[in-house]
Amino acid sequence: MALKVEAKGGKVGIQWDDGSDYHDVTKIYVRGGLEGIQFIKFEYVKAGKKVIGPIHGASGRGFTETFEINNLEKEYLLSIEGYYNASTGVIQCLQFITNKKTYDPIGYNEGARFTLSASRSKIIGFHGFADKYLNSLGAYFIKIPSIQSAIEGAKTTGKGFDDGGDYDGIRKVYVTTDGSAIRHVRFDYDKAGQVETRERGAKTGTQHEFTVNHPYEYITSVEGTYAHTQPYNCVVLTSLTFKTSKGRASPAIGKVTGSKFKLERQGDAIVGFHGRVGSCIDGIGNDHP
Asked: pTM for this structure?
């Protein structure tokens, strides 16, 4: 079910609603003029087909810009920033932000500033108010499905685990090591402002902690090593290092020995983990948007 974010701007004119039963936004037409944004029009994708929405507002003397979002290259609309005139109730400026780029704004950066966004979500529809101008703009959001990486380390031994990838971020990491292997991991995830804890393995050895300043910071990569280790007589993780969007890194936790690996994808936030676990953590993978 889509999340409806309240329209920002003046609540005057005719209320309109394009709905929320689309998969993506693929093209946006915006016409600007001296008094602000005159109209906006969207093209959506639904069941693999293009759906052309109506014009919201009216066309006068001004200029029209078109913003194309390349869904075929997995580009999607994340948020919109803008300004509106509190006296006239007219939108003055709009700027569109996708997972690939930030588009140049159209209009004037004057008035009250607003943002349309939702954590780890993309925009699939719009609503608002319009008359001779675009008075307000709201949006519908759905969660972006997470993508799982391959498991690093052992891929068949132990028992599989999957924390899921529908969290907003990670607040804290706990890793227990006995000097030979990673024995236990615990992750405190954030989900809609609440902490959800998942832990795996045997809590035997020395525990290390790494705190993330969520929501202003997120884990972007995990580096580590794995090896066939005694006395466990199987492949296990031997070390883990966590890095964040703020350039911080945890110390290398455990013994850095064996084959190296890195879990990372273009600076995306890591929002979940999966892997293999027995008496130790045998293998690990991550979930990202």
From this structure: 0.68
